[in-house]
Automatic annotation (TrEMBL):
It comes from the Bacteria. Pfam families: TetR_C_14 (PF17754), TetR_N (PF00440). InterPro entries: Homeodomain-like_sf, HTH-type_Tx_Regulator, HTH_TetR, MftR_C. Residues 23-83 form the HTH tetR-type domain. Keywords: DNA-binding. PROSITE patterns: HTH_TETR_2. It comes from Dictyobacter halimunensis. This is TetR family transcriptional regulator.
Length: 209
């Protein structure tokens, strides 16, 4: 169940042997850890438990993940980094709003491709109160990178306040759609949900004006 998305792969470049071995080890650790989290609970599972289950030392575990929390949220961070890469390299010909919407729809598609892993992580996070802040942060932390990608796209830092607002509103719609999708066990179309939530903001803007 390796949910890690590599932005270089999405641009057509294949990883080398060392990178493939690293990913295989990461995938093994992730699968084992998620199984233990389900069986015992996140807080009741130690890094030593995970290391023992994959027959490695905790020191070796730390070569791949800095903590249990990083292990749980790494795919979310990676997929959002893929979004920033997509925004820089693929959607360059569109307006800032159009490029951002296309990027979020691309991310929604990636979530759907890996829905089993993301759904499992969501359920683990939401039944563990200590993880909720980290879960929310993992979704919000890449907003500055999205702003930078849009600023680089336009070739200017002008309008930074507008870009920050645009990204914040769009990411809020994405997070809301993602939550609804997870609550329905990922049984609906996430791209359609995202479009609906983006439309809510447009409707609100018209009412305010």
């Amino acid at each position: 169940m390796n949910d890690i998305v590599d932005s270089q792969d999405s641009l057509g470049r294949q990883p080398g042997l060392r990178e493939r071995k690293k990913r295989l080890a990461q995938a093994t650790i992730e699968e084992t850890a998620l199984r233990l989290f389900q069986q015992r609970g996140y807080e009741q599972t130690s890094i030593q438990d995970i290391a023992d289950a994959v027959m490695m030392s905790p020191r070796t575990f730390f070569r791949y993940f800095a903590s249990k929390e990083e292990l749980l949220f790494a795919p979310t961070q990676t997929i959002l980094e893929e979004g920033a890469s997509y925004l820089r390299h693929v959607a360059a010909a569109k307006s800032a709003p159009g490029a951002l919407i296309e990027t979020l729809e691309h991310l929604a598609g990636l979530y759907q491709q890996q829905k089993a892993g993301f759904l499992l992580r969501y359920h683990i996070a939401t039944v563990t109160p200590s993880l909720i802040p980290g879960y929310l942060y993992s979704l919000a932390v890449t907003e500055p990178a999205f702003c930078e990608a849009l600023a680089a796209r336009t070739g200017s830092e002008a309008g930074q306040d507008y870009l920050r607002f645009l990204v914040a509103v769009s990411m809020a719609a994405f997070r809301a759609a993602l939550t609804v999708w997870f609550e329905h066990d990922a049984s609906t179309d996430l791209v359609s949900l995202l479009r609906e939530h983006l439309a809510y903001f447009s409707s609100l803007a018209r009412e305010v004006s």
